[in-house]
């Protein structure tokens, strides 16, 4: 199972590292302790909406952009059998075709959607999975978030 706080933390870390900024710089700008920001990025703490907005502001990002990235990552993980089990009250419409490639490694799956987003999931245990997603922009790859 993928924890939302880990996906949020990894999305924040990817943005910070993409800007070549340190934890100290961002924690100071967001008015949060360095240790607490580090725990958020590692998925050990779940930030409040106010704190998440302050961190996004310090990173020059919109909260909606960050939440959209997190939502896209979780949505792709839900399409993978055994990673997340969505709660469905009524039958859902069939999802868009998604290519799934299984690796020979223990519990590793690769999912890609229309060539612009790729997700790799490693099942660490029955209740823990490591999720990595990346977006393809032109010929280069940019890591959006990892969990």
Uncertain segments are 85-96, 100-104, 139-147
Strand portion: 15-25%
Going across the biggest sheet, name each strand in turn: 1-2-3-4-5
Whole-number radius of gyration? 16 Å
Main sheet record? 5 strands, antiparallel
- Secondary structure tally: strands: 5
N-to-C span: 11 Å
Shape: globular
Query: Helix segment count?
Result: 5
Helix fraction, binned, reads 25-40%
Q: What is the H/E order?
A: HHHHHEEEEE
The chain-level mean pLDDT equals 75
Describe it for me?
With 147 residues, the chain is α+β, with helices and mostly antiparallel strands. Helices cover 39% and strands 24% of the residues. It has helices at residues 4-18, 23-30, 34-41, 49-58, 63-78, and strands at residues 99-102, 108-113, 117-125, 128-137, 140-146. A 5-stranded antiparallel β-sheet has the order 1-2-3-4-5. Strand 1 and strand 2 (108-113) form a beta hairpin. Helix 1 (4-18) crosses helix 5 (63-78) and helix 2 (23-30) crosses helix 4 (49-58). The relative contact order is 0.17. Mean pLDDT is 75; it is low at 85-96, 100-104 and 139-147.
In short:
This protein has 147 residues and is α+β, with helices and mostly antiparallel strands.
Name some characteristics of this structure:
single chain; 147 residues; alpha+beta; five-stranded antiparallel sheet; 5 helices; 5 strands; 24% strand; disordered C terminus
């Amino acid at each position: 199972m993928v924890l939302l706080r880990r996906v949020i933390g990894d999305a924040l870390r990817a943005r910070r590292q993409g800007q070549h900024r340190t934890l100290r710089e961002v924690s100071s700008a967001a008015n949060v302790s360095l240790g607490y920001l580090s725990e958020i990025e590692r998925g050990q703490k779940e930030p409040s909406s106010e704190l998440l907005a302050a961190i996004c502001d310090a990173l020059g990002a919109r909260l909606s952009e960050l939440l959209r990235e997190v939502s896209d990552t979780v949505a792709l993980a839900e399409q993978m059998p055994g990673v997340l089990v969505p709660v469905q009250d009524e039958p859902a419409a069939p999802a868009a075709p998604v290519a799934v490639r299984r690796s020979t490694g223990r519990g590793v799956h690769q999912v890609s959607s229309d060539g612009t987003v790729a997700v790799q999931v490693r099942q660490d245990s029955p209740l823990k999975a490591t999720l990595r997603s990346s977006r393809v922009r032109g010929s280069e790859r940019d890591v959006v978030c990892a969990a």
